[in-house]
Structures are given as C-alpha cells and as structure tokens.
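haha ok so turns out i had the wrong file open the whole time. this is the CORRECT one, sorry everyone. sequence first:
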Amino acid sequence: MPQSTINNLNVTSQDLLPTPAEVKNKLPVSVDIENFVLTSRQTIQNILDHKDHRLFIVVGPCSIHDPKAAIEYAKKLKILADELQDTLYIVMRVYFEKPRTTIGWKGLINDPAMDDSFQIEKGLHLAREMLIQLAEIGLPTSTEALDPITPQYLSDLITWTAIGARTTESQTHREMASGLSMPIGFKNGTDGSLDVAINALHSAAMPHHFLGIDQQGKCTVFHTRGNQYGHVVLRGGGGNTNYDSVNMALCEKELQKANLPLNISIDCSHGNSHKKPELQSLVVENCVNQIVEGNSSIISLMLESHLNWGNQSIPEDLSQLQYGVSVTDACMDWQTTEEVLREAHNKLKDVLPKRFA
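then structure:
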C-alpha cells in the first residue's frame, strides 16, 4: 500500500523553516545586549530571592500586532521605567503568540500579515528584530511560552516568561519551563484553580528529559536540571477574582504547604478585571494597599496597556486598523498607565525598602 494513503491524511502542505541558528546569524545579539539580558534576569531573581525590595511590573499590549506602535510604546515606557526604577522594575509585555479557545488570530509570529497566510518565517524574523530593538532601547521583555519550539529562536532575548492558564496544566510546557533560562510565572487555571499552578511549580523545578529541536533544527533529547525561579501568577478565573487579601492568604497557605517560596504575581487583567481595562487600576490599588498594610508575598503585577484605550476587531481592509489599539484583549491607554504606575510608586517608595529588611 502506498505510504501516502497512510500518513498525513489531513495535511495539505508543509513548509520548511530556517533553523534557530540561521535566524540568529541574520539577527545576532551583541555582547552589550547579552549582558543586558543577563543583568535583567538576575534582577528578577534577586526580587524573587527578596534581595531586591522592588516590585517587578510586567506591562504592555495584550499582543503585538504592529511593531511600529510597539516601539513607540516602548520608548514612552523606558522614560517611565527610569523615573520609577527605585521602587518598580518595569518589564515590557511582548506577546507574539496567542492561545485560542477555538479560533482567532494567533499572533505576530504565526500570522504577521493578519490575513491567515501564516508566514511564520517572516513572523520569527519580525519578533527577533523587535526584541533586539527593545533591548537596545534598554527595556527588559517578557512573553508567553506557548509553542515549545519558538523559544529556541527568541528566548536569548527574554527576561521573564509566563506559562498561560491554558498550558500550566500541560506537562510539555512544564518540562520546557524546567529548561528555560529565565524566571517563569505559572498562571492559575482558567477555572481559577490554584492546584495546577502549584503542581507546575513542583514539576518545573525538577530535572526532565524531553524531545525538542536544537539550534541546528535537529530533533534532540534535552536533559534539564530544573528551574528554581518558578512562581505563581494569580489571574482570576471561573467568573471570580483572586487578588484580594482572602485569596492571598489562601494562596500563601498552599505555597507553604507545598514548601514553595511565598512569591505571588498578580495579573491585574484577565479574570481579575473581568477583561475590563477600567478595572485594572482598581486591582493595582487593592494590591498596593495590601503591601502597605503588611503583605510580603506580592512581588509582581501584570497589566495590559497600549497607546490607546480598548480593543478592535481585525478588519478585512487592514488600512482601517486604529493605530495603537489592541486587536486582542482590551487595554488601558498610555495616560492611565502612567497615572496608575506613578501612584503605585508614590505609595510604595517608602514601604518596600523595609519589607524584607
């Protein structure tokens, strides 16, 4: 029987991608950028180890669809980051891949033309080029590790990585996280459950052996030592929020029971704001007040923010896209972002230095 009647019955075509090494040769990292990434990762590790009193703030668009607007946003964010750096360590959210419950735009890497043409090679080059630009501006970056192959192309430029609510339960992603070179935040499940994140933290901290590709694109068995800088990200779920003091105490109790460090990041968007950008500032205010009142476990906040307010659908005529407006989850605008982060800075600047003294 011919092989074609057995294999790939539902595959219509295949396209070869350049290897990670080939992409990196075209878009290499300078020594200065390499040192910047290493230093920024060490800063996050110091915050998680309570050696650095600051909060790290992951802030930026829900997803990147327009590199020009993202760079404009980054330049504004860099000015703010320098202003607030004694209290807040700001990391730009740079999400190139989007998980989908059913269907929808899958992000800049998968579909850079936003027309279902899936020019992934172009998307990888665009993403790497942008990460290099952001490092040159002087901004640490974060992303979501969604596809287990993509980090081979980009992870050398990333400071902090999230494992999303849909994939925290995936053993493939836990194994991948065990080998990644930066701190990792595991979100609670989409239903709001915490146990999947706790299990993920244990798993990612352990050595693993799994299949992947190396820099030359060859199938490889990876052996990891485990990632000791995993932490939980509370993002709400199941119609409920989980950033309040009661949920914080419950999370701390579960972390203690699991013999895990009391490090909690709060995602101020998603379920904690019911995906309403105007509520993110209230979540930030609540978390800041908890710290002022003595909380010592909140070490990070995440916000979805863009140049302009809200979100938009992707039109057939892409020339009709509104500049600086998210095409995925609704974001708060730049002016609100500045106000929220400055207010947090002012409330915390005298509190945080004493927190772990």
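The domain at 19-48+55-355 is CATH 3.20.20.70 (TIM Barrel).
again sry for the mixup
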